[in-house]
Amino acid sequence: MVNTKGLIFDIQSFSVHDGPGCRTTVFMSGCPLSCRWCANPESWVKKPHIMFSELSCKYEKGCRICKDKCTKKGLSFDKENKPVLNFNICKYCTTFECAKACYQNALKVCSKEYSTEELMNILTRDSNNWRSGGGVTFSGGDPLSQSNFLLEILKKCKEKGIHTAIETTAYSKEEIFLDVMKHIDFAFIDIKHMDREKHKDKAGVYNDLIHSNITSLAKSSWKGRLVLRMPVIHGFNDNDDNILQLVKFMNFNGLVEINILPFHRLGESKWTQLGQSYDYSLEGDVSDSRLKEIQNMFLQNSIVCYIGHDTLF
């Protein structure tokens, strides 16, 4: 078998919210969606690219180590000698001289290439900490964006008896999606909005493929556990009509578990580090009382609903 390589932007050991038990979560680069509230916008691009964290930069203390390192004129300095990146130039960079020079990690490259062997070595090492019930979760981005690499890793995990989980948008060709799911024990699948136009407006793609893949999975012989998941965002998807449409969809497909996630801004600084504006700096918050109301709407329709990290594994 060819040892496929994949792009990963983070690997977190000792994760406890991404599936049963203690786990290693592998964050894979690439995502077909572009949600305007995304906590990991650095995951969208399926290639290495640059970020700049002003908070980590020591320019105020006179550090100029990155000066003159960029040969493409993508890096300049303002009147306070703070580095300024021209992301229209930086997005084409493949050598990252500035990041290699920065020992403060203020300039850093998102994504690192791993072979299946290298990743399996990490998972084998971490397995000593999982104890019973743990395993590996593939997240992102969306792992389906690198389906060949994902499938090769999943097959190796199954050979070693490793419990596998995935966090995905399910936005993929049905054949690929169902092939991947054959090797998955537990899945979180995101539902952003039931209306296709509103989904397209804020997530960048229509939701038809997502819904059809979930239905196909529900009708298949897959024996894993599926929990749908929805980030609850005020003014976008927290209205009664959307919730009831989701209830109807779940009942139609015989799905009985959903995890609703309170809106947060944990990824806002990443948007700035990527030179992008964040749409939800001043909006999106949902009250605890509204989350309870939404939870009750699901419970009243025989659907178990977890809020935040309360999912029972």
Automatic annotation (TrEMBL):
Pfam families: Radical_SAM. It catalyses: glycyl-[protein] + reduced [flavodoxin] + S-adenosyl-L-methionine = glycin-2-yl radical-[protein] + semiquinone [flavodoxin] + 5'-deoxyadenosine + L-methionine + H(+). Keywords: 4Fe-4S, Iron, Iron-sulfur, Metal-binding, Oxidoreductase, S-adenosyl-L-methionine. PROSITE patterns: 4FE4S_FER_2 (PS51379), RADICAL_ACTIVATING (PS01087), RADICAL_SAM (PS51918). Residues 81-112 form the 4Fe-4S ferredoxin-type domain. Residues 17-304 form the Radical SAM core domain. It comes from the Bacteria. Its cofactor is [4Fe-4S] cluster. Transmembrane segments: none annotated. Belongs to the organic radical-activating enzymes family. PANTHER family: PYRUVATE FORMATE-LYASE 2-ACTIVATING ENZYME, PYRUVATE FORMATE-LYASE-ACTIVATING ENZYME. This is 4-hydroxyphenylacetate decarboxylase activase. It comes from Clostridium tanneri.
